[in-house]
Specification:
Elements lengths: L29 H13 L9 H7 L3 E4 L2 E4 L1 H7 L3 H4 L5 E6 L9 E8 L3 H14 L3 E5 L5 E5 L3 H14 L9 E5 L3 E7 L20 H9 L9 H11 L6 E4 L3 E7 L4 H4 L1 H6 L2 H13 L4 H5 L8 H13 L3 E4 L6 E4 L2
């Protein structure tokens, strides 16, 4: 937000629904609003007035200071002609790196300051990630061909939306960041978690710092029922035998990290078809932890999975060139090879 922008204080409205001085209705694209209303009505996500100005008032995208209408952050970010003129830091930095760390000598693609409305930012970031992960085809049960993707698309979409919908737009010093590395993707959101939300209650707490913005994104089909985005991420990754996401509240930032399928599977699809579900799970755990002890791996499965079965899985993964053993005896650890 620029220095000239002042948000009127109120105990009754969220920060994203407060009027912004030095803005007016002219800062919003009413044609874009009308299109949004029509699409949300057609999908059953919205039922109400079709008149853009009335809609903007009811959705808290505009608000009064005295008798004059001004745009709110939700209005500018979702429907503004030039949102970054008001919120220069409301952008996403996208980095794609060839290695395991975000360092300059490993940059494959760097796109700073992805701007426009929140809709445009979501589309750009998701499209880039989907186009630049690995895709393939393998054979499932009954010789049925099964699509194989490094990351589930719904997870990419949910985390991009979460990053953009829930970040702290009053933070003037930082932009949102998405970092794609060789074995993982990181979403870094300015502002940390909202008040009352912790890592422990993240999936159950119902709190949003930008409820007016989230309401508009829900109508557009980008957000599901309140608070279900991260639940969806956890459930889909579990269903596809991928490593659970890592959530970190770093104070000034909130970070989500996910790990994809091993790249080896996309260069050897016959190998991918041979792996069992348990072997895939073991592989994703080792790749996420970078070093794993056999007994720690065994402890992650129920008692019906024998120690001998785990040893056999580790040997087959080693023979396939997906992991390697380091150390001897009690010091044995397994590390990924991709």
């Amino acid at each position: 937000m620029s220095d000239s922008v002042a948000l009127e204080e109120s105990h009754l409205r969220s920060m994203d629904s407060l009027p912004i001085r030095n803005t007016s209705l002219d800062d919003l694209d009413l044609d874009r609003v009308a299109t949004h209303i029509a699409q949300a009505t057609a999908t059953g996500r919205y039922s109400g007035t079709l008149e853009p100005l009335v809609y903007l008032q009811r959705q808290r995208c505009v608000a009064l200071i005295g008798e004059t209408l001004h745009a709110t952050p939700a209005g500018v970010l979702c429907f503004g002609h030039r949102p970054q003129e008001t919120f220069p830091h409301a952008v996403v930095d996208l980095g794609h790196y060839g290695g395991l760390e975000p360092v300059s000598y490993d940059v494959l693609h760097l796109e700073r300051g992805i701007g426009g409305t929140l809709f445009e930012q979501i589309d750009r970031v998701e499209s880039y990630l989907w186009a630049n992960i690995h895709h393939g085809m393998t054979v499932g049960a009954g010789a049925r061909r099964v699509e194989l993707h490094e990351y589930p698309r719904v997870v990419l979409r949910e985390l991009v939306v979460n990053l953009i919908a829930h970040r702290d737009y009053t933070n003037l010093l930082s932009t949102a960041r998405v970092q794609k590395l060789r074995d993982r993707i990181e979403w870094v959101s300015p502002g940390g978690l909202p008040a009352g939300v912790t890592i422990e209650n993240l999936l159950t707490a119902q709190a949003s710092r930008n409820p007016a913005t989230v309401g508009v994104l829900y109508q557009a089909g980008l957000v599901e029922a309140f608070g279900q985005g991260l639940d969806t991420v956890v459930a889909v990754l579990k269903r596809e035998d991928l490593q659970p996401p890592r959530f970190e509240d770093l104070g000034a930032f909130f970070q989500v990290t996910i790990w994809g399928r091993p790249l080896t599977l996309f260069s050897d699809l016959e190998l991918a078809a041979r792996l069992t579900d348990r072997q895939r799970r073991i592989l994703t755990i080792i790749r996420a932890q970078r070093r794993a002890a056999p007994h720690d791996l065994a402890a992650m499965f129920d008692q019906q999975v024998t120690w001998r079965s785990i040893q056999r899985d580790l040997k087959e993964l080693s023979d396939a060139g997906l992991i390697k053993q380091e150390g001897k005896g009690r010091a044995v650890r397994y590390v990924p090879l991709d």
